Automatic annotation (TrEMBL):
Keywords: Membrane, Transferase, Transmembrane, Transmembrane helix. Gene3D superfamilies: Rhodanese-like domain. Pfam families: Rhodanese (PF00581). It comes from Paraburkholderia saeva. GO terms for molecular function: thiosulfate-cyanide sulfurtransferase activity. This is Thiosulfate sulfurtransferase GlpE. The chain crosses the membrane at residues 26-45. Residues 62-152 form the Rhodanese domain. Its EC number is 2.8.1.1.
Amino acid sequence: MGRLPFPISLFFGGFSVKFFTDYTNLVLIAIALISGALLLWPAILRRGRGGLSAAEATQLINRRNAVVIDLRSSEDFNKGHLPSARHIEFAELQAKVGQLVKNKSNPVLLVCQTGQQSNKAARVVQDAGYAEVHVLQGGLNAWQQAGMPVVKQGVAK
């Protein structure tokens, strides 16, 4: 067997032990780990809170043509809803879930009054095979608090 151009002990022997016991290297490793965690933090929070903000929802609608599904009652829907929202009551969702979007890879944004029903509905829609399902965090209440437009019987408000 031929000789290696470098001693193996450099990687498996004293070098690796010295690297991990040197205080400066430990500080650099800690900084790298903390930096990575801080970069992931917004994504972790987004998953934990269970939905998109009004601004994030607007970007999803405008940039990716998300289909907006309003799950509230007909009465509440007529009082005001997101522009271009389709209306399917929460109680009817299970029966009509196949009719939401023709292409199941298109993003779907679910909206209710407070965000509670939308979180429940998201599971139903995902189980039906839709690849990208989002919930408007805080529902229509949060949308209006953010100063976003609502449509009332064909008129933007």
